[in-house]
Write a sequence for this structure.
């Protein structure tokens, strides 16, 4: 079974530029999560989708971050404009049915962003 | 914001020893999960314990849950060098929102 795919793995940009990350979850997984993990910290939930609807985006900085999940499958996370403090690893995860209530999350390898 | 705290922040042990780490959370939960993260990699699920369970085992892992104290512990018995990683607890609410603690960095030396 293929895992969660993310791209790009690494991205370096200058502040005020924009960047987009892509995630392809495991086939059939209804729930998709985006997390931000700053070096030395635990992952912080940015947004949770159930199919193509948003369940929770309370910690998403909506002035600069946006995310969508088209047709309830792939998802993109965009940052525009980027700030230095956005340097982090962006992790995508997927899960069956009702997400973590049902069981485990499956994580991708992450996209590491460096903002200069 | 993080859901809770983990203790200790770092743990260094020798192969064969047991490793114990603790986790506290803030709100009521549906379940609590533990994940492992090797350096530069994604997270891997280890074990899930539901709010009506008190203890669970999986191989060399033992997890306890005390909902009255809003705390959990993870015990790794007979540690191996391959257990070197960061370990995170994560609490799940009724909507499936999974929030992580700050993690415990474990180093197991041969």
């Amino acid at each position: 079974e293929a895992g969660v795919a993310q791209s790009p793995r690494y991205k370096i940009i200058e502040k005020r530029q924009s960047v987009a990350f892509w995630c392809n979850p495991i086939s059939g997984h209804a729930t998709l999560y985006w997390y931000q993990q700053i070096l030395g910290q635990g992952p912080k939930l940015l947004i949770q989708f159930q199919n193509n609807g948003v369940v929770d985006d309370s910690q998403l900085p909506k002035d600069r971050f946006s995310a969508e999940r088209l047709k309830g499958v792939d998802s993109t996370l965009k940052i525009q404009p980027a700030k230095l403090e956005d340097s982090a690893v962006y992790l995508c995860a997927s899960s069956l049915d009702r997400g973590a209530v049902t069981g485990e999350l499956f994580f991708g390898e992450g996209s590491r962003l460096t903002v200069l | 914001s993080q859901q809770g705290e983990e203790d200790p922040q770092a743990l260094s042990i020798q192969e064969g020893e047991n490793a114990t780490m603790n986790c506290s959370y803030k709100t009521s939960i549906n379940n609590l999960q533990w994940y492992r993260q090797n350096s530069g990699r994604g997270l891997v699920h280890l074990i899930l314990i539901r709010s009506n369970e008190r203890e669970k085992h999986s191989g060399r892992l033992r997890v306890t849950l005390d909902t009255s104290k809003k705390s959990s512990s993870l015990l790794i018995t007979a540690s191996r060098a391959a257990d070197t990683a960061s370990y995170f607890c994560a609490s799940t609410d009724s909507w499936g929102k999974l929030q992580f603690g700050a993690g415990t960095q474990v180093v197991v030396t041969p």
Chain A is about 0% helix and 50% strand. The mean pLDDT of chain A is 94.
